Structure to design on (129 residues):
């Protein structure tokens, strides 16, 4: 997974195609307590849910390149995993219940400047076609 992340990010940042795209990457949580005992993220989620008038999903932009996606429906994750019942073994069931990723996901939004060539007056416009 790490190599895929690094390869896609490298391609995105170095490729010079004139495409107006954003790349969103999931922020990994290294601290095991924050990852599997999501007390603070869940409290934050409940607080955001109260002030978003009961919406089940909420996206909050935190600056120019940070975004959090919060969800008040962990059963949606359970049902999605249950659709692949052969893969939904006991430890993945625990992960769905206790993991922070079932409730809150943080993303880094990578934006690239698109450079558009504007013809200068008097230049041969046939070259640009």
């Amino acid at each position: 997974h790490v190599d895929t992340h690094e390869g896609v990010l490298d391609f995105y940042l170095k490729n010079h195609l004139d495409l107006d795209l954003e790349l969103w990457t999931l922020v990994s949580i290294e601290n095991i307590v924050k990852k599997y005992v999501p007390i603070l993220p869940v409290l934050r989620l409940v607080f955001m849910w109260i002030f978003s008038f009961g919406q089940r999903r909420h996206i909050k932009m935190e600056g120019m390149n940070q975004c959090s996606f919060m969800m008040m429906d962990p059963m949606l994750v359970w049902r999605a995993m249950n659709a692949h019942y052969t893969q939904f073994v006991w430890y993945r069931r625990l992960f769905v219940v206790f993991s922070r990723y079932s409730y809150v996901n943080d993303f880094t939004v990578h934006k690239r400047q698109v450079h558009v060539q504007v013809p200068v007056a008097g230049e041969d416009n046939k070259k640009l076609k």
In short: The mean pLDDT is 75. DSSP finds five helices and four strands in the chain. Helices lie at 2-14, 32-36, 39-51, 74-82, 90-98.
